[in-house]
Design a protein that fits this description.
The chain is mainly α. It folds into two domains: 32 residues; 30 residues. It has four helices and two strands, in the order H-E-E-H-H-H. The protein has a two-stranded antiparallel sheet. A hairpin with a 6-residue loop joins strand 1 and strand 2. The N and C termini lie far apart (79 Å). 0% of the residues are buried. Bound molecules: zinc ion.
């Protein structure tokens, strides 16, 4: 077997990139499992890509509203502050 053949055999599986369903990043198929274990250890704490997008949208909208509207929004989000 010549060197070229060895190189091809070694490098061919590298193209197997898969998307991490937690953070949306692309990782080697063999590495994505350990990536998830290392980067997203606590599954209850992580949110989906869809939720991340929704959060970004909410934050973008939040930046557009006035300080008055922000106070009103926070008041509605936190019923406990109704007492204040
Ligand atoms: Zn990830």
């Amino acid at each position: 077997m010549n060197n070229e053949g060895k190189l091809l055999a070694k490098t061919s599986p590298v193209s197997q990139m898969v998307k991490c369903d937690v953070c949306g990043g692309h990782y080697n198929q063999r590495y994505v499992t350990s990536h998830k274990r290392l980067s997203h250890r606590d599954k209850s704490e992580s949110i989906s890509v869809d939720e991340t997008r929704t959060l970004d949208t909410i934050l973008a909208l939040y930046k557009q509203i006035s300080a008055k509207a922000r106070r009103e929004l926070l008041r509605r989000l936190d019923p406990a502050s109704d007492q204040a």
